[in-house]
Amino acid sequence: MATVELSFSALPVHVRTARLIVTAVARRSGVAEALLDEVRLAVGEACSRAVEAHRLHCPDEPVRLELTGEGRRFEVTVSDTVPGDDAAGGPPAQPDEDDLDFDLGEGTAELGLAVIAGLADDVEIATTPKGVQIRMSWPAEAEATI
Questions:
Q1: Which domains does the chain have, with CATH numbers?
Q2: Ordered strands of the 63-70 beta sheet
């Protein structure tokens, strides 16, 4: 299955475009229609978080997305280039894999991560010296056609 890569400048107006592209790719990857709103909202939250971090720390760097469909999963990775300790005041909290009902504390970035964890079927948040990656995935009913 092919990988779709997308990068956009750190402007809030581009988040809507990213959501539309991800929704179209998710549909072609076999994600159920009933899950497409969850995909769109989760990706919108992740992209908005990345855009805000970039606007504060590195406004000239693009936000990157990678969309893949392997087997019966559709996966989206949103990457920023803001080191974890600089983005939103500290490294993101990692949700417990067995229980996505967790408390991230106060703050917009933490609330966005909680929303993402509630919408995506599986979430992994990685903080590296090069930035933060939020990987989300959903089940796909059919083999991907992208």
A1: 4-139 (3.30.565.10)
A2: 4-8, 63-70, 73-79, 131-139, 122-128
Please, where are the H alpha helices in the chain?
A: 13-28, 36-57, 108-119
pTM given for the model? 0.79
Residues 6+ apart with CB under 8 A from 80: 49, 50, 53, 54, 61, 63, 64, 87, 131, 132
Q: What is the pLDDT of residues 93-138, one digit of tens each?
A: 444 444 443 333 345 557 778 889 888 989 999 988 889 999 999 9
Amino acid at site 30: G
What is the maximum span of the chain, computed from C-alpha positions, in angstroms? 41
